[in-house]
Amino acid sequence: MSALIRLSRLSALALLGVVTLGPSAWAQSLRESPRTGLFELRMTPGYVPAVDSTFSPSADCVASRPYQKIFGNDGAPLFQLGTAAHVYRGIGALSLGATVGYFQDTGDMVRTNPCVGDGDVTEEEAQFNEDRSTTDNTSLTLLPLQAQATYRFDLFEDTFPLVPVVRGGLDYFGWWIDDQDGETAYFDEAREQPSSGGTWGYHYTLGVHFLLDYLAEDMATGFDLDAGVNGSYLTVEYTVLKVDDFGDASSLRLGNDGVLNFGLTLEL
């Protein structure tokens, strides 16, 4: 009988604790599943590789802006998918992980390129009045691979839903150029130098992640209980990509001096 009385008292104390703490604290206690890592999806709209920075503006116009002349300045979306594991949790979280990406831009092959200084050709005419082939297309495809460390200052995210983020790491961009038949193009007429390869580099990022759990706590609690997702975040990040074989003048430069990317991060 005494054991039953003690069990009744413990149950009453537990119920009193729930009433005293309120639903918010109760939901928070349920949401605290183990935090082991991150799953990330990011998209950079209108990504333009810095290919043209390889060439001197003072050179003839055929070689001065090849990417701009073929693909234009609008760029194409760069998609990235990543995962990371927490190696430290305390004053924020430090994670180590990797990402894989995909980018493809298409354009019309340029047959001739009038140059500034040839007769009365102006700079505008040299940029827009090339003899283009509307049937012979070409494409540049990038496969970016990244290994990186990410620090997220999430110590106060339950009361202030914005999480500052810093990340950086190494990059390897595999790349290839296809011709109008969808096959790898060549740099030379003898077809001995295929237009494919890879470029090494690095990147660093500053960003902010918005905790979506702040808007729907009950839904977030269920998401954690059912799927083990401890937190969902909308992300905005500014990234500098230096992908030029660490300054090698002969490499194909595929980075960008500053891009905004947007995405979704899940903490598992």
| Count of extended strands | 8
The 3D shape can be described as elongated
Q: How many strands, what sense, and barrel or not for the largest sheet?
A: 8 strands, antiparallel, barrel
Oligomer: single chain
Bin the strand percentage. Answer: over 45%
- The helicity comes to 10-25%
SS content category: alpha+beta
CATH class placement of the largest domain: Mainly Beta
Report the radius of gyration as a whole number of Å.
26 Å
Task: Please give the domain count.
Answer: 2
Distance between the termini: 44 Å
Order of helices and strands: HEHHEEHEEEHEE
Give the count of helical stretches.
5
Q: Mean pLDDT, nearest integer?
A: 79
**CATH topology of the largest domain, anyone?**
Porin
- Give the strand line-up of the largest sheet: 1-2-3-4-5-6-7-8
Return the CATH architecture of the largest domain.
Beta Barrel
Low-pLDDT regions: 3-31, 116-121
Structural summary, described in words:
By secondary structure, the chain is of the alpha+beta class. It is built from five helices and eight strands, in the order αβααββαβββαββ. Strand 2 and strand 3 form a beta hairpin.
Summarize the structure.
By secondary structure, the protein is α+β, with helices and mostly antiparallel strands.
Task: List key phrases describing it.
single chain; 268 residues; alpha+beta; Porin; 2 domains; eight-stranded antiparallel β-barrel; 5 helices
SSE layout:
Layout: H1 2-30, E1 37-47, H2 61-64, H3 66-71, E2 76-90, E3 92-112, H4 123-128, E4 131-152, E5 162-178, E6 196-211, H5 217-227, E7 231-242, E8 256-267
Antiparallel strand pairs: 1-2, 1-8, 2-3, 3-4, 4-5, 5-6, 6-7, 7-8
Helix pairs in contact: 1-5
